[in-house]
Amino acid sequence: MAYTTDRFVREVRVTPILITDPPLLNLSGVHQPLTPRTVVEVETEGGHVGLGETYGDTEYLTAIQRVAPRLAGTDVSRPTALRALIDDVLGHDDAAATAADVPASGLRGKRDLAKLKASVFSVFEVAYLDAWGRHLGVPVHALLGGRVRDRVDYSAYLFYKWAGHPGAEPDSWGAALDPQGVVEQARLFVERYGFGSIKLKGGAFEPDQEIAAMHALRAAFPDMPLRLDPNGAWSVETGLRVARELTGVLEYLEDPSAGVDAMSRIHAETHMPLATNMCVTGFDEVPDAFARNAVQVVLSDHHYWGGLRATLDLAALCRTYGVSVSMHSNTHLGISLAAMTHVAAAVPNLEHACDTHRPWQDEDVITRPHTFTGGAVEVSDAPGLGVELDTDALADLHRRWKDSDVRDRDDVAAMRAVNPDWTAPRLPRW
Ligand SMILES: O=C([O-])[C@@H](O)[C@@H](O)[C@H](O)[C@@H](O)C(=O)[O-]
Ligand SMILES: [Mg+2]
Asked: Across residues 226-252, what is the average pLDDT?
């Protein structure tokens, strides 16, 4: 093939945005009315633009903005080469802490420089693969080895929630503050999107209330796989009790307690399958957790595991050790959903419906937002990610970012606006 500079990066645009978010409750507090995301555009000399989307919090945005100017002249067909460049810009002290262990925002396990770099790499890797796929006229999943399924199943992701943000009109979901409200929300999810699995974000109420909610869901949806995720809110004793009470009700329990010791004890004593996006969130945490059988389902997430190819590596590792793999989600829009769907389509051993927050978002930055039919998103065979940027929407959401002083997700502060005494709960909370 003739040497060509078409694939070389001409310009990178990094755009912070604020998107609306409903009042979803979790262990830390409540989602804010506005939450940050970052959109990356990588334009090649050949005129193709690759897209990426990730966290918008200051820590991520600043790191992405530092790396972006260094990308001019790099080749979008060689995203792996970016790792060295990112090390150069952000430093080599991988173990250096970047934030408190389980921060208010995210609930995604330990934070160090290696993990921040994995996130920075990920957003650019997605944009490079999108641009490269557009050049070649092939979908991103083809660059990952090809799709093994035509549709990716997602699960309904229920949250306890208020009817609306304080002082604002109720949203179209209404309140869910007890088992009946949770069941009503599940019915809306199934009606609107056809989901065939259900996850409830727990850790917001006393364990007995959340156990009752799971029993109510089981009664209302006798055949659906169910999950509960309190983000490590419980002591081992509480985790053991909940696991026993929900045996036969849940397909898995997600992060009942924090840490490998607690998780391995709960599994050993109850045999309840345990999933995690907190105690195994990077490759360095895999050996100990697998050796001690602390997790039976790893929830991958390309945004922090280090991109789409790293997600495939993780899936291969899980396969080797007989551990299941599925997918974690944080608040996100359609560029992220496209990337999640392409990689999920290429993971042979994806054994559970993936998480997605997408139904909670009323806005998007792509021209044709995805639809869920029968709870699934169809895998696109269009070049790249198969989504087009809505430049007007991006400009509007960026203007909102400029006009606001919200720069980070802070569920604790959002709860404090209602309950001035609220502080981030210490684990275990119950
Ligand atoms: O959006 C939330 O409130 C979730 O709690 C999120 O931050 C978690 O990272 C996540 O969804 C989880 O599965 O733990
Ligand atoms: Mg979780």
From this structure: 98
